[in-house]
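Hi all, long-time lurker, first post. I run a small reading group and we've been trying to get comfortable going from sequence to structure in the token notation. Rather than ask abstract questions, I figured I'd post a concrete chain and ask someone more experienced to write out its structure so we can walk through it together at our next meeting. Sequence below, copied exactly:
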Amino acid sequence: MSATELSVASINDYRISVPQAALDDLAQRLDNTRWPETETVDDWTQGTPLAYMHQIADTWRNSYDWRVVEERLNTFDQVMVNVGGLDIHCLHIRSARSDATPLVMTHGWPGSVIEFLKVIEPLTAPPASEPAFHLVLPSLPGYGFSGKPTETGWGLERIALAWDAIMKALGYSRYLAQGGDWGSGVTTAIAIQCVDSCIGIHTNMPNARPDLSDPASFTDREKTALAAAKYYQDWDSGYSKQQSTRPQSVGYGLVDSPIAQAAWIIEKFWRWMDCDGHPENVLSRTELLDNVMMYWLTASGASSARLYWESFSKMLGDDVHLPTACSIFPKEIFPLSRRWAETRYRDIVYWNEPAKGGHFAAFEQPETFTEELRRGLSAVIEAS
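-- Answer (accepted) --
Happy to help. Here is the structure in token form:
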């Protein structure tokens, strides 16, 4: 373990209870929204369309009920863990199975633990023939109900050490790790830094550079991936440049305006999901708003963006030698090929490319995602 191992100061039971005043304030802000003019195109290419945001606002103001998802979250055991001087909120769902394996799962931006709600029961209480898991679902620092860092240094590597400390404090000396988006970065950092406690990992977004030395060898799949990467760089990466350079500036609008926060997030669900052109082809409007509320109610617009400032160009580049399972969904931002992934993840024991799904795989395709974890992590356990 790294000499910079973090310590846990306290673990306290937690229950979400949003004050009614916060919901009343949201309603007032929605009523007082100062709207921009409509876009000059008839699609999403300039951002979330005005007409759709009016629909979002109407639902949010008049029929959406936060208390429903709050009650659902509160059906799960939750803890607030003070680690490295920062409070981290975790859902902690123990399986009734005596043979269950501990698994920490990490979300990314603009997601939250809401992404995982549909896979909790299948993973913790599966059929007898399937593997079972004890789940720990932390919210990243500055996200959801976790604390907001007040000093620099909370990048992916420190978060990985914090997760390792949390798992040990919860009684799990050996565990698995899973993640996509920033969660993949955290999971990869765990696999690099915490080899004595982490059994192995699963990721639906492996972090490795493509080998561009021999273009003649590129497969059609790799050419498609490179085209997706170019599109992302040309048309889809402005949010990351802003959040990695000036998160405080964008934070003022995101924390002050619920419509700004919702439009900022929902556009990425439209673009990164396998949704045939509209996010509500995959997720309900209520589900989209459940996730947005994890940012709005906790005023996380700036603090969540700050993770980009901390980590966007500072991630560990070391190779991963622990057993690794990868599930590459077709509409991932950059659907890496296996041979490119193997340049960094040196012991890939499971690789699969499902037919449907995108960046928010657990949220979009919970049954497929569950099956991928069962198969992938079973291979990891067998190889460990």
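A couple of things your group might point at:
Residues 21 and 313 are 39 Å apart (CA to CA).
Residues 24-29+45-383 form a domain with the Rossmann fold fold (CATH 3.40.50.1820).
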